[in-house]
């Protein structure tokens, strides 16, 4: 027995035709029969909520592959707030992972297109934000610039540091400067982010076979971002990565994949290397605004009664399980069939415990799928107790050795 609220992370979705579907690499199957007779009222009631109505209108976009776009309609978090171009509204609000790459400054491109090595030697930093929360995406960021300008431009001129040390206002200001045409940061630096959605994180971790754990997802996101920068013609000669686990294994793998660069993986790299500090700011600003955009899309109008005029207070708080506002919001917004929306990581213990609590949600037992590809060799032999196949024996029955 499993909670129906785990449907989203089990590869299930509600489509625009009010049908519950199982989505897999092999295709989409519509679930019907007893399930509908018992639960259709709950399903149709869910369809009437603003959140699921929005998801249904985006159904065609949701079924596309992982998006990587440079332009998208930005989410208006609040009047006057700076929203970086790494906030892509469509994939974000339907729970789809996506990547964003800034334009490469012309000064970093090779002078001779046929000779990539003629480009300015650059260093690149990698860091993440949002590894532990139960709500919102985990965002990986990379930041690159000429090696000679790393400390003078980032540390001395703009005072970049570990994003956890900087205030939200300072981080936002640095990000705005980075994205402003004509600024020294914009002219000399490039950056990119990948937002791994809560829906995708949970679905990958809850696979019945071939579990795709968080560390593997993080490693792949890092590799893809670095490859994306190389593909844009940037001459990366030094790579610095912040890590939570043992650095040696991580560094060995990255060095093997990027042999032309010197790779350094270290704990607390965001406070040791300026380019990693800048990457942490890009990741943190994107993560925070993505969470806020999800909240604006998901919130109940009553949630903001009594909030400050600037609208910065989110009822679900920071999204971390240790935040009482987060767990309180999850308990009060737990749908008996679907649990929560694409903002939630269903693989987290916090979500699992709430879903499996007595009386928290509707229960259903899924029959084993028959994919039509599980035939055994013995299925092609006729046994004595099987019914006679009259058509097969129209011209007689097989003769045994005793007939000769």
From TrEMBL:
Highest taxon of source: Eukaryota
Family to which this protein belongs: Belongs to the RNase HII family. Eukaryotic subfamily.
Co-factor: note: Manganese or magnesium. Binds 1 divalent metal ion per monomer in the absence of substrate. May bind a second metal ion after substrate binding.
A family per Pfam: RNase_HII
InterPro entries: RNase_H2_suA, RNase_HII/HIII, RNase_HII/HIII_dom, RNase_HII_hlx-loop-hlx_cap_dom, RNaseH-like_sf, RNaseH_sf
RNase H type-2 domain span: 121-360
Keyword Hydrolase: yes
PANTHER family attached to this UniProt entry: RIBONUCLEASE H2 SUBUNIT A
Species annotation: Akanthomyces muscarius
Residues the entry annotates as binding a divalent metal cation: 127-128, 242
Enzyme Commission code(s) on record: 3.1.26.4
Gene3D superfamilies: Ribonuclease H-like superfamily/Ribonuclease H, Ribonuclease hii. Domain 2
Record keywords, A-Z: Endonuclease, Hydrolase, Metal-binding, Nuclease
PROSITE patterns: RNASE_H_2
Protein name, UniProt field: Ribonuclease
GO BP of this protein: DNA replication, removal of RNA primer; mismatch repair
Required cofactor names: Mn(2+); Mg(2+)
Keyword check for Amino-acid biosynthesis: no
